[in-house]
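re: ur question from yesterday

yeah so i grabbed the chain u mentioned. its 99 aa long if i counted rite. heres the sequnce exactly as i have it in my notes:
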Amino acid sequence: MLHNKDGRGRRVPRGQAWQWTHDLESLDHLASILDWIDLRVSVDRLSLLNVYLDHTEITAPKNAAISFVSKSQILYSKVTLPTRVIDMSQISANTATHS
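ran it thru and got these structure tokens back, copy pasting raw so excuse formatting
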């Protein structure tokens, strides 16, 4: 989730937390998602909350190089709920059927 707690960012409305859900078939696409997260956190001054990656895949020796700048800034909250949930697999499927 990206959380705009103090209202500094513009993409996510003040006080809201938006959650993006990705279901990847391979980790090849993950680097671009992590780059996007880093950009949104820094440019929009958002907090990164409750990031969950498949632990088995992400810690496999072949994936040791996967990292991102905002990784050290992840906060975990049981209180903050997403105001909006965006399922990226549905968006990708809709885009593919309308192309």
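noticed a couple things. The mean pLDDT is 81. also Residues 2-97 form one domain.
anyway ttyl
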